[in-house]
Design goal:
The chain has about 190 residues and is α+β, with helices and mostly antiparallel strands. The protein has four helices and six strands, in the order αββββαββαα. The strands form two sheets. It has a four-stranded antiparallel beta sheet, covered by helices on one side. A two-stranded antiparallel ribbon has the order 1-2. Responsible for the release of ribosomes from messenger RNA at the termination of protein biosynthesis. May increase the efficiency of translation by recycling ribosomes from one round of translation to another.
Length: about 190
């Protein structure tokens, strides 16, 4: 393994950490309805748990209502129950063959709570990125110990890994600020 290999691996892992953060932030609902908040809900489909978007068409009915159209009529009650039992606090209503999921307006207190959740998600992502930096630096030290690279190469490699870490943390901060602004807009 070389210094460039360590940098490439670290860069891809930091990218995956940021992608995970984006996925987690998409689950946190804001005042507006969006179809992504139902993505992690699992529905029992003939004995196996399946994401709701694989058994139904999910669209926006209006700014505050999500419309769920099951592919099979008999799945309607199962989907409705799964949405109701989820941790999102949503109350779906059946309208014939489709299910409408109104998203209630957020109170000021709930917005503050969501901001705390967003900050915790961001902090978890930063911790993950810092752990990746530590792993990369350990790999570089091991390469020096094995005499695969020189100490100068190790120093340059550590500087490059630090730059990747700083870039990742800056991206995380940007995503967190963007989500907080989204939550606070009424």
């Amino acid at each position: 393994m070389s210094v460039s290999d360590v940098k490439k691996v670290t860069e891809t892992k930091i990218g995956k950490s940021i992608d995970t953060l984006k996925t987690n932030l998409a689950k946190i609902r804001t005042g507006r309805a969006h179809t992504g908040i139902l993505d992690h809900i699992q529905v029992d489909y003939y004995g196996s748990p399946v994401p709701v978007n694989q058994v139904a068409n999910i669209t926006l009915f209006d700014a505050r209502t999500i419309n769920v159209q099951p592919f099979e009529k008999k799945m309607g009650s199962t989907i409705e129950k799964a949405i109701r039992d989820s941790d999102l606090g949503l109350n779906p209503q059946s309208f014939g063959e489709s299910i409408r999921v109104p998203t209630p307006a957020l109170t000021e207190e709930r917005r503050r709570d969501l901001n705390k959740v967003v900050k915790n998600e961001g902090e978890d992502a930063k911790i993950a990125v810092r752990n990746l930096r530590r792993e990369a630096n350990d790999q570089l030290k091991k390469l020096v110990k094995d005499k695969s690279i020189s100490e100068d190469d190790e120093r340059r490699g550590q500087d490059d890994v630090q730059k990747l870490t700083d870039k990742g943390v800056a991206e995380i901060d940007r995503l967190i600020a963007q989500k907080e602004a989204e939550i606070l807009t009424v």
